[in-house]
Specification:
The protein is an all-beta fold. The protein has strands at about 5, 10, 20-25, 35-40, 45-50, 55-60, 65-70, 75-80, 90-100, 110, 115-120. The strands form two sheets. Strands 2, 4, 5, 6, 9, 10 and 11 form a seven-stranded mixed beta sheet that branches. The chain has a four-stranded antiparallel beta sheet with strand order 1-3-8-7, with no helix packed on it. The radius of gyration is 14 Å and the shape is elongated.
Length: about 120
């Protein structure tokens, strides 16, 4: 079965940096895009960053210039480099695979990781 496993979360002081990793395991034929979402208490889940199979990236306005999404196709891994972290960045961060197909004939579907906690606090 396909699994997305996030790592790299933790507690960091304002202005600090973290690098999140999302490793996909299982049978994977293709995916349209990979992304990072986050959800803070009492708020809706929001898109943080997304990267397509062609390498095009987009970001939420709140993180532009601070966060960078990248991928390593050979390792089936997506990264999120987070710099200049703010308390407002505190949330559970989720990895997402968009339109993933386990086989060439399979319909595409979304997969989600279990989430990793990021806390920005003095």
């Amino acid at each position: 079965q396909v699994q997305l496993v996030e790592s790299g979360g933790g507690l960091v002081q304002p202005g600090g940096s973290l690098r999140l990793s999302c490793a996909a395991s299982g049978t994977i034929f293709s995916a349209n895009a990979m992304g990072w979402y986050r959800q803070a208490p009492g708020k809706q889940r929001e898109l943080v960053a997304r990267i397509t199979s062609g390498g095009s990236a987009n970001y939420a306005d709140s993180v532009k210039g601070r966060f960078t999404i990248s991928r390593d196709n050979a390792k089936n891994t997506v990264y999120l480099q987070m710099n200049s972290l703010k308390p407002e960045d505190t949330a559970v961060y989720y990895c997402n695979a968009e339109g993933l197909r386990e086989r060439y004939y399979s319909p595409g579907r979304n997969y989600w990781g279990q989430g990793t906690q990021v806390t920005v606090f003095l």
